[in-house]
Structure formats: C-alpha cells, structure tokens
From TrEMBL:
Name used for this protein in its record: Alkylmercury lyase
Keyword entries, A-Z: Lyase
Any Pfam family the entry gives: MerB
InterPro entries on file: MerB, MerB_lyase_sf
GO MF term list: alkylmercury lyase activity
Length: 232
C-alpha cells in the first residue's frame, strides 16, 4: 500500500503530495476519478448528500465498483446508499458550514476541508464554525482571493487520535478552528488521546490548497485559483 492509500495522518497532510485527498484522487483511474468528481459536483449543486441511486456513471460503467474503490482509498464513504463522507464534504451537519457565493450551504468534514471548498471551486465564500473549547463563533471569508478571519487571531488545530482508520474518524473530529493559539494549545493538552500541532492561517490555507484545490481542476466553468493572499 503506498502513501496515497494508507491512513491519512497529520504528517502526510503537512507534506505536498504525500497521501492527501488530491494525491489519492490523482492515483485513481480516469473513470473512477470522474465518478469522484460527479459526487463532489452533486454536493455543490444541491448542498445535500447525494444518494448512489441518483448518480449516473459518466461513462455508463459500474458505479458499485467505483464506489468500492473510492471507499478503499478513503475518499468517499456511503451509509445505506447515501454519501456520508466525500472530503471535503460531509453528508451530515458537522458545525463547519460553508456558503459559497451563489451556491447552497454545505457542511465540511473539518476546518481544513472548509477552507478547501472555496479553493476547490475558485469561488468566494463564508465559513461559519466555532471553537470547540468554549463555543466562540469563528467566521472566515474568502473575498476576491483574500482571506478575512474573525476573530483575527484564529488558528487551526491539526490533530488526530492515536488509532488508525478513516480520516473521518481519526482526524476530522479534531481538526477545528480555535479563536486564538492559546486556546488551541490548551485544548490539545487537555485531550491526551490527540497528537497534533497548531497551524497559523497562512499554513492552513496552504495545506487546504494542495489537498483540495486540484480536485475539480480543469472542470469547465470552474476557476481553481492559484495561491492566494492571507489577510487577517
């Protein structure tokens, strides 16, 4: 099993091309990659988790086979036929809500995934979340390619549990916005089951960009933008 198929970990997310979501998609066959993009576009179009039965294979092939492969490499997971996980999207509420300009609100799997949705689509948008420690609201906006953060000192805790498994179980619950670094560090200390690090805004956007920016690259009508300025 190569690094693009093994469990996602904090270390792999911090290194370009070492097993993040985009690297996993790049390792798919062309047909399975098209199915993956079909799932992502369905979330964007409706704001809702699509059901397998409502999707059409872009080449008339076997959807079951494609979904089996997507599950195997931890890109898409179904629950009774409905897409429960399709990083960066969640099929159920998570507390990370992304509202793209002109689009329906969607739920992101974690804070990094929330940053990845505007980058993946090349669109402006607003992310609404909260610090898991004290519930303080956090708002992040991408406008004209620039990021605006409220509170201004917001950071992202990138952490994981010690066990192995899908990112949805081991990483996503712990990857969250914290309204200042001290809060994130205190949260990490108070949860001995977690290991991780605190990301500043620029580093978080950088990781989100290489993890999710390429997922819909080349799609007609989408402008997946290059690296963007980060501004508090």
């Amino acid at each position: 099993m190569n690094s693009a198929e093994g469990p996602l970990r904090v270390t792999s997310l911090c290194e370009t091309g070492r097993g993040g979501v985009a690297a996993r998609q790049a390792g798919l066959t062309t047909t399975t990659r098209q199915v993956h993009r079909t799932v992502l576009r369905a979330f964007l179009a409706t704001g809702q988790a699509p059901h397998r039965d409502d999707l059409v294979h872009p080449e008339g092939g076997d959807l079951a086979e494609a979904f089996s492969r997507l599950d195997e490499v931890d890109l898409v997971h179904l629950d009774d036929g409905c897409v429960a996980v399709a990083y960066p999207f969640s099929g159920v509420p998570t507390g990370h809500v992304v509202r793209l300009a002109g689009g329906a609100p969607v739920h992101a799997m974690c804070a990094l995934d929330a940053l990845g949705i505007p980058l993946m689509t090349g669109r402006d948008g607003v992310i609404e979340s909260a610090d898991p420690g004290d519930g303080r609201p956090v708002r992040v906006e991408r406008r004209g390619g620039t990021w605006y953060w409220s509170p201004e000192q917001t950071v992202i805790l990138l952490a994981q549990t010690r066990g192995c498994g899908p990112a949805a179980d081991c990483l996503c619950p712990a990857i969250a916005f914290h309204w200042k670094r001290e809060r994130a560090e205190a949260y990490l200390r108070s949860h001995p089951e977690l290991t991780g690090l605190v990301l500043d805004q620029a580093r978080a956007v950088e990781i989100a960009e290489w993890s999710f920016g390429p997922l819909l690259a080349g799609e007609r009508g989408l402008d997946v933008s290059p690296r963007t300025e980060v501004r508090a």
